[in-house]
Queue: 2 jobs
Job 1
Amino acid sequence: MNHDATPSNTRSHDWKVHGYVAEYADVDSLIHACEKVRDAGYTKWDAHSPFPVHGIDDAMGIKPTILPWIVLGGGITGLLTAIALQWWTNAIDYPFMISGKPMLSVPAWIPVCFELTVLLSAISAFLSVLVLNVLPTLYHPLFNVERFKRATDDKFFVSIEAADPLFHETNTKSLLASTHPAALETCMDETKSAKLPVAFHYVGVLATLLTFIPLALIYKARFTKSDAPRVHLVWDMDWQPKYKTQKQAKFTGFADHRTMRQQVAGTVAWGDDPDASPLTTGKDAAGNWISNFPLQVDAQMMARGEERFGIYCAPCHGLDGAGLGAVAKRAELLLASNKAAGWTRPASLVGTLEDARLRRDTPNGELFNTITNGKNTMQGYGGQIPAKDRWAIVLYVRALQRAKFLPDAEVPPELKDKVAALPPAGK
Amino acid sequence: MAHALTADELRQQTTLGEDASSWSNRLLGIGLLLLLGSAAYAFAGPEGSWRQFQFSYHIAFCFFLSMTLGALWFVTIHHLVGAKWSTTVRRVAELTMGSFPLLLVLFLPTLFSVLKGDDGLFLWVSHEKMESSHLLHGKIAFLNPTFFIVRVAIYFAVWIGFARFFASNSRAQDLNGDVMLTAKMRKLAPLAIILFALTTTFAAFDFLMALEPEWFSTIFGVYFFAGCALSFFCSTIVITMLAQEKGRLQGIVTAEHYHDLGKWTFAFVFFWGYIAFSQFMLIWYANLPEETFWFRDRFEGSWISIAVFILLGHLLIPFGGLVSRHVKRNRAALAFWAVTLLLMHWVDLYWIAMPVLHEKGVEFHMFDVSLLLGIGGVFAGLWLKRAQGGLLAPVKDPYFEASLRFKNM
């Protein structure tokens, strides 16, 4: 073994034989050599090639890998995670209905299930390949052989380790020699691995200690209170170089140093109504609610009011205006079964027997304004109902009020039988 | 079979014998008999027989059309990417895609009924019905007999043209072994794949989607293509295995090739499911009446059992069945899945088309079987006739040796 290559950078350590390395010029001789080594019964050996070689598994007698089973496990874990995640978040912890689909809406879940299955399969495949191939390996004795570096370039190698029970200094060597290698070398390994420099230990301890700082801060925040603004790692748009209302402007461009500007003459601000009239505000020139109608009242307007009332008002106030529409009825049901709280019942627009005057004295203009801008918990409908239709609704509400407590004398004779059959007023 | 084949063995393994000739005559005879018998019953039988005939015939036609389109796609993609492993099975695909002229002839009855103004199969033939709704009125410019004939002519011109181009060059190579023929085919493959994609997409719209002229789904062409590729791979597995039963292609198509055909089959089982679900999911979620009715019709009554059967038999069960490497390398197991998936592909087409005729629920008719077997008999008989005119594998292809030696990782 005199002519065997010995590592050039000899340190003060002892060297031992790691194994033999045979070099081949092409794939066919590599496969041929592998078959021979396989048939000789070696177990701790390997073939090295710059690219994947078809048929090498058979030539080396490699058993099928367990990787597919690991990937299958990863995929099933991903699938179950996706199902559990969506089921728990959407149907159990925070039931939330999305576009009328059921809570357990399997078709909607499938994309997430698919993606998580693929993701966990891919991650488990990637990590398993690293673990099964013992990667990353920072040192390997084979790289002590200079010519072995061409294993990633244009040469093919077979290496047999001395740790193999069949390894024999001369027999193994002659076996490899019989495969007609282009070169045959002994690979040497250091008996003791080099010591880690002391500095690395200090750095390691320091880095470990530093990782406790964020944890400690988070832990402290769990039981202390602070008025200080939160720590902004990312500022987003929390602070912007801009002026706010009612502040003094340090900017010298404005002579009056106000941050807010006066309305420019001849312009209309958002929300202003240059055409304000009783028709759109319900108020006269002096600012008082008007009690008449700014439009011509006729049967057509009444019919329109009835229709609009049915669409916009009746769901809460009820078709008769007494305050028991479908929404109100459902709310009372929920209240009774403690499933909702804080419900304010919609107002009766027609008054009650006890207080028949309620809302009947309200001027037309004020009723109109309530429809436009809302009142208490009722939202404004000005944006949805045109002014003419709002007046039509006011007219229809007036009709409802009148009809609710109509004296018998005023009931048209042809409707008397019908009215008598109705339940008593106020119920 | 590990040893290299001698020239004599190669010739024996790629040439059909005398029995093929009698088989092809028998298949042709049975097929024609079934077709003519069914046609006679369609005219003489009870009320509604003709319409039932039209639908059953159209589904059977689409079934064999899809397989043939899959073959054209496979040959094109083989040349496009310069594939090597598939060289030994490419001739089977080339023989299958020789069926386009037959399919054109088989489409003529449907074409004539459209010309005659028969709206039994394609509702859009009736101008009156097309004027009945705003949505249909807007489609008259596309769905009218004149433009339909023009489109069908373009489809078949492209398909027959490219199929002949690839098959005849490949056969010429059997004789002279000219490498430049491969280069020539590779040069035209990009154009072929683009035209293939366009014609197949629009053919799917015309032949299947237009059965419900109100309905539209832009992904439908891809959905149909998934079935084309799947049925092609399954039919190729079945054909090569039958040939090997008869002592042909042995040592030429090996477990390695079956493994790869199995991988393709597996891939397209899932691709089909992916596309089918993509189509369903968007329509289901958006919940627009002009789209959802198609699925509603196919989920109502007994059609829901067919839909669930497809979900299980076309996707979930074959996915689990084909995932293993051992199944793909096992002849019996792979043959089982190939036949199963061929049947499932027919069920898929049946589920797409037949609810137009039987809105209330599934109603199987003897035409469904007799016409499938009838067209199948003629299809297989002419396939064998074409196969007798040459070799069963492109033995002088420059990649033939590489394909023989091919091994999976």
Note: The first strand of chain A starts at residue 15 and ends at 24.
Job 2
Amino acid sequence: MLWVECPNCGSRPFEEYRYGNVFPVTPDTITDADARNVDYAWMQDNIAGVTLERWFHESGCRRWFTAKRDTTSDEFLPLDG
Amino acid sequence: MNEFVETLLDLPWQVGDPKPAYDVVIIGAGGHGLSTAYYLATRHGITNVCVLDSNFIGSGNSGRNTTIIRSNYGIPESVAFYQHSLEMYQQLEAETGCWIMHSQKGQIWLAHSVSTARTEQTRALMNQAMGAKTDYIGPDEIKRLCPQIDLSGGGRYPVHGASYHHEGATARHDRVVWAYAQGALRAGVHVYQHTPVTGLLMDGDRVTGVQTPKGNISAGTVISAVGGNVTTVSNWAGVRLPIRTHALQAFVTNAHAQEFDPIISSNDLVFYVSQTPRGQMLIGAEYDRFASYRQATSFAYLQACSKKSITMFPFLAKLRIMRSWTGICDVSTDFSPIMGETGVPGFMISTGWGTWGFKAIPAGGEQLAQLVATGSAPLIEPFGLDRFAKEAAMADPSSAGTR
Amino acid sequence: MPACEPPRFEGLVGWRIIADRSALDTAPWPAGSHVVRISPDDAFVIGAAEPGVPGDEHAIVTPELGFAGAAVSAEQVADIALHHIEWKLPAGPCVAQGQIAGVPSKLVLHADGSALLLVACAARHELEDRLG
């Protein structure tokens, strides 16, 4: 069972949450304005490792929050760690 | 090497290490990688090809899917492509001489509401227009095709109708991989298992080969047929992909003596059921909503999926879950595959296979081989990576994951 | 052992307030009203009198008829927690939110272990079915 810590409600099973994707980061190497838009709209970093992402506690307080998670183990890590 | 594969099949494996140079190096010896190599060798006479895999052949998503072959997709380009693949599957045993346990069953997409009934009617008409045999059928016909179904859906999900895809089929996943491996090896292709690619060789902007623990291998063209970890490979070449990796879970029950003919999917409940040749009921659903590289099965998933399938098929409640597995799918942002050129010379890609990769193995390999050999493959042209910049994304409302 | 009596829900009349968290912390609630703090900036105030939030001039105060509630005894809370709640129930007094029997619900826990069980009206019958 995967547990997610909601800052308002505490630890709950992950089925109570909705996943809100990672913060999109367009690399600085892409300089053309149109290319940056395409990258922002479609491309994904798809990191195999620690990502900073948004989660929504749908079944609880119904608030979005930021969480740090390792996508290779699905382990949630402390935000300041 | 995998003992199971070796004892069952007489594959003419290469001995020793890969050569220092090939015309084409393919990363990933799954269905797509091996079929690309097979068609390069058999259709285009390009036999100086090497396929590398970090594990044994078919150890990735080719061994972790639900083996459904169908072409009843939601956009014309997809139907044309998958229909071609479906027809190639029908001929694959005759062509390769390998028994892949191909079994035509018909696939039913159930509609439990007026709005999804309309979706299914649209699907049937659009499929017919593109040459796929799909009809809209009513509840009586569904009951005749599948007597086990509860048409009332437990009182909550009454069946309004369904689209019936006559040529929906299944095949044994590892036999498909072995058939292509055997065909490719016999034609002179080199396949090296347990040879991970650890980096790409670059000459300026151009990809010129791959790095492996067995030494560098230079290549005229490098093709990534990697599943799940494709972003790692594309990052080496500096190619940005619209791919997010999700886990997809499925499971089988113990053997059910009664015959269960068709493959049944539900549009509103989002699950699918079919019977394996051993009599086990194979049940799966959509991929996990959050991105993950972890190949883990969750109790919550098994519970939710069991509940949904029992709603439509009460007899399933008496069965037990015997085995479950999880593949990591490279899901593209518009839910269509990505094949062909990447914009980096010498580097091609076959990815975005999300939950629809197995059914595309023959056509995906054939078309990619044609693109390498001749520089043109009209059937997969709409699926190029450049479609996003051209504002021609291929959002498919009928992929298993698009809900 | 006989199962506990299932909770009996009734529609609640109250006010929904979205406001600055410090304003909600210090708001003078009308006498006899009952405040359920859903999140730092979101409160459900049960009671007929319209509450004011002087600390936040942009506060949104609107009638809220979307919740059904049931008073549950300490024994019922323990029974529900045992059979229907996967997460660890905190000690009262506090608001505990999450899925109960798979339905998004809220338990307003009192110090004596009894509670007010809240659920969205749309999911009330579903929760009743699952708890009953």
Note: Chain C touches chain A at residues 38-40, 42, 86-88, 90, 96-99, 104 (CB under 8 Å).
